[in-house]
Amino acid sequence: MIIVCFLRKENNIVTFNIEGHSDYAEAGSDIVCSAVSAISITTINGITDVLKIKPRHVMEDGYLNFSLQGNSPDEIDKCQVLLETMLLGLKNLEKNYRDYIKVIVEEVQ
What we know:
By secondary structure, the chain is of the alpha+beta class. It has a single domain (2-108), classed as Alpha-Beta Plaits, CATH 3.30.70.1490. It is 40% helix and 31% strand. It has helices at residues 31-50, 73-96; strands at residues 2-9, 12-19, 56-60, 63-67, 101-108. The protein has a five-stranded mixed beta sheet with strand order 3-4-2-1-5, with helices on one face. This is Ribosomal processing cysteine protease Prp. Belongs to the Prp family.
């Protein structure tokens, strides 16, 4: 199962982690994994290439960590439309494939 955890600080998404594999189908044919990858990578590309904001992120097999903690409040604010859209897309995916993806949203101090 893919676990996606979004962390909010003062109602702004500042971090997300994606871990695991959906096991919906074999590698290369897994539409759940492909959808999660496409949504998350497109979001990061929008932030880095369109908004020109440099977040911290690490990508490995079955793992993605993204963080704006350390970026300015203005940069964090500019990223919210993309991050909220990502959250919406993943929650919609979760509705249809709840055995393969879980989305969690937590508030942090």
